[in-house]
Design a protein that fits this description.
The structure holds three protein chains of three kinds. Helices cover about 30% and strands about 20% of the residues of chain A. Chain A is α+β, with helices and mostly antiparallel strands. Chain A has one domain. Chain A starts with a strand and ends with a helix. In chain B, the strands form three sheets. Chain B has a seven-stranded mixed sheet, sandwiched between helices. Chain C is α/β, with parallel strands linked by helices. Chain C contains 13 helices and eight strands. The longest helix of chain C is centred in the last third of the chain and has 15 residues. The chains are: A alpha+beta, B alpha/beta, C alpha/beta.
């Protein structure tokens, strides 16, 4: 365990970004989102939920796959260079960390998505425990502990200090590189500091867990969402009722840390060639399944159903029961029509 | 090997295509053309199995998944029979031999030609452009004639002019021993002395024995009625294979749009045994 | 609220309407969702409180295709949207029974939550104060700090179309507590900025856009069956942006498309997950229309000809752009 004064965080960030890119929650135009740190930027570790998750750092909303030129009828293809520069993502919450595992199972399964894999390889994640989880949080239902956020390094902000605990080789390496800044609170070398730090963290953890226990959405019944109920859930008349206010926008999809569907499109730069890029897509959009000769999901109800069936039934069926929801609650606070996965879980799960 | 500037050092992502050269374009019907494609070195782009698909693209126009209609036993090239029905296919139809496109693949599973189909009597049922994926299997089976039993091919289209690969059907398939070909068109037409009627009703008239494994491909409505007819004739769903067609972008089960139930049609399909399809939510 | 439920039950019972379009209780007390009620007993979940910001007018496009009449509860500013949709032949007045509901301002839940008010159960407006019933007792905050932007500059409590009113009087004055701010104040502020500064403002705001299309999909003026941004055949179709400021194209094109039809209902800003003040783009058009063609309020009636789709010899000439110092 290590510790640094909260007042020295800017120094810490400067030190990290000296060796690699650093992405962390930045306050810009009244909103907090992950962005590239520089001294002019204003970091914000108090906002619990960034608008978008840190998904962008590994699976950007838009990225070029390759460039293609046609010169006198001869085509040439120039693949986009893979990420080869180390970077650190600081401040990811436990839910967003878990979401990376959900994404890994998609992008790192055979055949590996090399663009994503390169970013995972070069990225080090420093997580941050949630000091005060909010009422829109429901991570507990998915076995996530916001008091122990995991990843390469996990940290807690307690009063005027940041407590730092490396968990992996990558985390150790980052810690070593910051040796001049982080105060050692290791049991072997500094037993007193270690005891103090362990105590402070343990106290913080139990306080976080106490709050979570009391949150209104912490105890959802997910028992009906399993592969053997696929048809029963799919055919439920409740979808017809649930989807009604849905505006068919992509807010839930784009703020979701686990949504991973994408589109591949061309940007025609004329003489400069064509950039084939991929970008996030949403199963809520009507053109998602549109083909030249028709659309297999013609109603918003079907599209709405697909999103939740995928998260709660289809994805778990392929991934040892792991749900493709981490309970971050972004959809709960952002849906323009106040729809969200909690309402689906309650209604379809028989609670409401 | 890829044609990119990496110099072949790293294995490119599956989303990065190869460059293909169109060496021949055959007009099959007023709206279907068959494109023969090789690599720039004149050789076949990749090996595939019958039923597999590949993405064909014209950069700046679009990219779409097509089934490979040539047989794996063809060592020289790949062929795609493509119906004109959108922006990309329009563009492809206006291309000429010698022009370049991009191709990536093969993707998806294949008809179980080396396992479940081996030694079986086979009944192929196709409608319109649905012959494209089945042609790959038919030519594979014909090239390894001794490994399979009797072959029946029932193929129908709207009109005489809409039957694809007619030359090959008449000159090769119909003349191969142990192969029976049944053609039909939807409506009477001058110059046609063959059968007239929809594929499902012709199927019932033909009264095939149920000792066959059936491979079906065609428009969804035809498949629906063919399956009903087969059930009526006493075939079990485990004897019937078909291929599904959905919107696809990646080909590797990640982009999400061909997801039905826990399956991704591009990766877990496109070939499904009909009893497997029954277990999926009806979204195809 | 009880009065609304009682009346809705009566109208359902006597067959005047086949369904009720209103708001349904959410999980949190601050997240009611737009909902249809078809049976009297369903109305137990009906709610109307200051968190019911959603403008239900656009849902009537779909409701108009259902058999029978739909009862809808519209707040004063929602009625402008309904009128405008009637004018554009998108909703059916004769298949809609409108109860105009009184409104003292609607809330931005995020503002209430970030003021530290938690465990919200219900809210009520008393004068300039917002009183919130919470799990931890009653909390208060200044109303102005909790309101949606559109309510801070309320354009009036008058319902321009209704079958009956509940909790409202005909021809009421504007604003929460009768106080309306100048809705063009921020536009004027932007106009006064040097171009570079103004560009920087919009660049910072618009580069937050995640292209979720919530603004478009919620907008009552965006009722095209097929949006140009959803087409595949044009480069206009993007789900992501070629560069970080390309979002401007989406928002500016959209602002042009709704110009003269936008009633300033403020739904675009209400739903934006990134808090982009999109209403300012539309309001700039409204302000210019007022300047060039005389005061005009889209949706105030269903008959008048809109300035931008009408021709008169008094219309301004294109030269107005350079006269005003634009295009420099």
């Amino acid at each position: 365990m290590y510790r640094i004064d909260k007042s020295r965080l800017a120094e810490l960030f400067a030190a990290i970004s000296g060796n690699q890119d650093l992405f962390l929650p930045l306050r810009k135009a009244d909103q907090t989102n992950y962005g590239l740190w520089s001294e002019e930027e204003c970091f914000d570790l108090d906002t619990l939920k960034t608008v978008k998750s840190a998904k962008d750092c590994f699976f950007p909303q838009s990225e070029v796959l390759y460039r293609c030129k046609n010169e006198d009828g001869k085509l040439s293809i120039d693949p986009q260079k893979l990420c080869d520069r180390p970077f650190v993502v600081f401040g990811m919450r436990a839910c967003d960390v878990k979401a990376i595992e959900v994404l890994d199972r998609v992008f790192l399964s055979d055949p590996v998505d090399t663009f994503y894999a390169a970013r995972r390889e070069h990225g080090t994640i420093v997580s941050l425990a949630c000091h005060e989880p909010e009422e829109t949080c429901f991570c507990k239902n998915f076995g996530i502990d916001a008091a122990e956020p995991g990843a390469d390094v996990e940290t807690w902000i307690i009063e005027d200090g940041l407590y730092w605990k490396p968990l992996t080789e990558k985390g150790e390496a980052l810690t070593v590189s910051l040796a001049g800044l982080l105060e050692n609170a290791d049991a072997a070398s500094t037993p007193d500091a270690a005891e103090k730090a362990e105590k402070a963290v343990a106290k913080e953890q139990s306080s976080i867990r106490e709050i979570i226990e009391k949150l209104p959405l912490s105890h959802l019944d997910l028992s009906r969402f399993k592969p053997e109920n696929t048809m029963e859930l799919f055919d439920s008349p409740l979808w017809e009722e649930l989807y009604k206010p849905c505006l068919a926008c992509g807010t839930c999809t784009f703020v979701c840390p686990t949504c991973q569907c994408y589109d591949i499109r061309d940007f025609d730069g004329g003489k400069n060639g064509v950039q084939r890029y991929r970008c996030w897509d949403s199963c809520m959009y009507s053109d998602f399944t549109m083909m030249a000769h028709g659309n297999l999901r013609t109603s918003q109800m079907q599209r709405f159903r697909q999103r939740f069936m995928h998260k709660l039934v289809y994805y778990p069926a392929n991934n040892d029961g792991l749900y493709s929801c981490v309970g971050c609650g972004r959809c709960v606070s952002k849906c323009p029509a106040s729809l969200n996965i909690v309402k689906v879980i309650k209604k379809m799960g028989g609670e409401a | 090997m890829c044609e990119c500037s990496c110099g072949g050092k790293t294995k490119p992502d599956t989303l990065i295509p190869m460059i293909g050269v169109i060496t021949d374009i055959r007009t099959e019907t007023p709206d279907v053309k068959t494109f023969r494609v090789v690599g720039r070195d004149g050789k076949k782009l990749f090996e595939h199995m019958p039923g597999q698909c590949a993405f064909v693209s014209v950069p700046g126009v679009g990219e779409a998944m097509f089934s490979i209609t040539s047989s794996p036993t063809n060592t020289e090239f790949q062929e795609f029979s493509i119906k004109r029905c959108g922006t990309l296919t329009d563009y492809l139809h206006n291309m000429t031999a010698g022009e370049e496109i991009t191709v990536r693949g093969p993707y998806g599973n294949s008809f179980p030609v080396e396992t479940a189909l081996k030694g079986q009597n086979l009944l192929f049922i196709a409608g319109g452009i649905g012959l494209a994926p089945l042609r790959s299997v038919i030519n594979y089976v014909l090239d390894k004639r001794d490994s399979y039993g009797a072959v029946d091919i029932l193929y129908g289209s709207r009109s005489m002019d809409d039957l694809v690969q007619l030359k090959e059907i008449r000159e090769v398939w119909a003349k191969t021993p142990g192969v029976d070909v049944y053609l039909t068109i939807d409506r009477e037409q001058e110059g046609w002395d063959g059968h007239v009627g929809f594929v499902p009703s012709y199927l019932k008239e033909l009264e095939f024995a149920t000792d066959k494994t059936v491979l079906v491909c065609g428009p969804p409505i035809m498949i629906k009625f063919v399956l009903a007819a087969l059930t009526e004739m006493g075939f079990d769903k485990t004897q019937v294979y078909t291929t599904l067609e959905l919107r696809m972008k990646c080909g590797v089960g990640k982009c999400g749009r061909c997801n039905i139930g826990s399956k991704y049609v591009c990766k877990d399909g496109p070939v499904f045994r009909c009893d497997e399809i029954d277990e999926l939510p009806p979204e195809y | 609220m009880q009065e609304l439920i009682t009346r809705a039950k009566e109208l359902l019972a006597d067959g005047t309407v086949s369904r009720v379009l209103g708001w349904k209780k959410g999980d949190m007390g601050w997240d009611p969702e737009p909902a249809y009620f078809e049976k009297e007993e369903d109305l137990k979940d009906f709610v109307y409180n200051p968190f019911c910001g959603a403008n239900l007018s656009k849902y009537l496009i779909a409701a108009g295709k259902l058999p029978g009449t739909t009862l809808v509860f519209l707040k004063p500013c929602d009625t402008y949207s309904f009128n405008q949709l009637t004018k554009e032949h998108r909703v059916k007045r004769e298949k809609t029974y409108i109860i105009g509901v009184g409104c003292h301002g609607t809330l931005k839940a995020e503002k209430v939550l970030s003021a530290g008010i938690k465990g919200i159960e219900d809210a009520a407006i008393e004068g300039d104060t917002l009183k919130v019933k919470t799990l931890y007792g009653e909390k208060e905050m200044p109303l102005m700090d909790a309101l949606l932007e559109r309510c801070q500059v309320c354009k009036g409590k008058t319902h321009v179309v209704f079958d009956e009113l509940i909790g409202a009087e005909e021809g009421e004055e504007a604003g929460p507590g009768g106080l309306a701010g100048n809705r063009f104040a921020k536009v004027e502020e932007l106009e006064a900025m040097p171009p570079k500064e103004r560009f920087a403002f919009w660049q910072e705001q618009l580069s937050k856009c995640i292209r979720c299309n919530a603004c478009r999909n919620v907008c009552p003026a965006c009722s095209c069956l097929k949006c140009v941004f959803d087409g595949n055949q044009f480069d206009s179709s993007q789900k992501a942006n070629a560069d970080t400021f390309e979002e401007q194209m989406f928002h500016i094109i959209r602002a042009y498309h709704v110009a003269g039809r936008c009633t300033d209902c403020g739904e675009c800003s209400r739903v934006c997950p990134e808090g982009i003040p999109l209403q300012l783009l539309n309001r700039k058009f409204i302000k210019d229309i007022n300047t060039f063609y005389g005061e005009y309020q889209a949706g105030a009636d269903t008959e008048s000809r809109a300035p931008l789709t009408d021709f008169t010899f008094e219309d301004v000439e294109p030269g107005i752009v350079s006269e005003r110092g634009g295009g420099r």
